[in-house]
Amino acid sequence: MLDVVIIGAGQAGLSAAYYLARHGLEPERDFVVLDANDGPGGAWRHRWPSLTLGAAHAVHDLPGMKLGQADPAEPASAVVGRYYGSYEDAFELPVHRPVKVNAVRPAPGNDDGAASGTPGSPLAVETDRGVYLARLVINATGTWDKPHWPHYPGQELFAGTQVHTHDFGSVADFAGKHVLVVGGGTSAVQFLLQLAEAGVETAWSTRRAPEFTTREFNPDWGRDVERRVNERTSAGLPPLSVVGVTGIPLTQQYQNGIAAGTLVSRGPLQQLLPHAAVFADGTEFAADAILWATGFRAALDHLAPLKLREPGGGITMDGVKVAREPRLLLVGYGASASTLGASRAGRAAALAAIERLSAPAVV
């Protein structure tokens, strides 16, 4: 039986693995990292080629190894995949891939573990490569595998193409089309600018007015963002998106887009017709493609057997600790769903795991 199984080899999972090793746990003997991808990079390896490092959200350094200088014109997927791969090799992290985790549940005969809080009562991590038994699980699966598709009247009758950010490939796929972009985050803004540059006619729909901000993104701002997100998760409420709390930085490029009319929202979407979108003010846009930049939800379906959800749909958290299940530490949920806090959350999970493993068994 392992002491810890980490699920996910993105930023938070690799950070947790690093700190477990730093605190004396031996790779392979005491802990492993399970990753569903074919190679390193986490969710970054799936980002579209036109998302360059310079256009992406900041890629924060992993503990113990800086990213260093990289070409801002290179696809972020390539830069981060190479960086994470080098990181795994440098610290000899025990990443098993590709391994798909199907479910996490109390091991047979140990259903009382959650009630007792005893780290010695294992969890069974069921995968397509067999079952791993662990005293503790650090879940770091993030959000990429759970794209959010909102529903609007007439959506199933729309005759054109519908693509989510998760499956976006290139602006070339939309050449000659009239494209509706739905969503109020950075991805929507970047899609609109790329499409406009390629000569594609677009319209932008957001539920609320776009929240551009000139606030300086400094450590105080970061702590304020995390505090606001954590207020909900500590109360067992579904988390808000981090971008929804931070707003969109008003760069010169975005100011130019606003001035050109590209980054001006036409307001909430009311319904879809076979060949058009109808906005809340009654105006229409003749659309033959929709790009849903509507975000992601925490990818936690494999944790369903642990019955973590509160009546309101959220999971009650104390930092990275899960109130309903002491054998589980959860990162990539709430504030740590962004690169903003992923490394810190990985460290917090590793330290919490070391503390729980060191605790005397409850008799």
Q: Can you give a write-up of this model?
A:
It is a single chain. This protein starts with a strand and ends in a 5-residue tail after the last helix. The chain is globular and about 65 Å long. By secondary structure, it is α/β, with parallel strands linked by helices. About 2% of the residues have low confidence. The longest helix has 17 residues. Strands 1, 2, 3, 4, 5, 6 and 18 form a 7-stranded mixed β-sheet that branches. It is built from 8 helices and 18 strands.
Note the beta-strand portion.
Answer: 15-25%
* Average pLDDT figure: 89
For the biggest sheet, the summary is:
7 strands, mixed
Q: Indicate the radius of gyration in whole angstroms.
A: 22 Å
Output the helix-strand order: EHEHEEHEEEEHEEHHEHEEEEEEEH
Distance between the termini: 20 Å
Secondary structure class reads alpha/beta
The total strand number stands at: 18
Helix content: 10-25%
Count of helical segments?
A: 8
| Residue windows where pLDDT falls under 50 for at least 5 positions | 112-118
Global geometry? globular
Notable traits:
363 residues; alpha/beta; seven-stranded mixed β-sheet; 8 helices
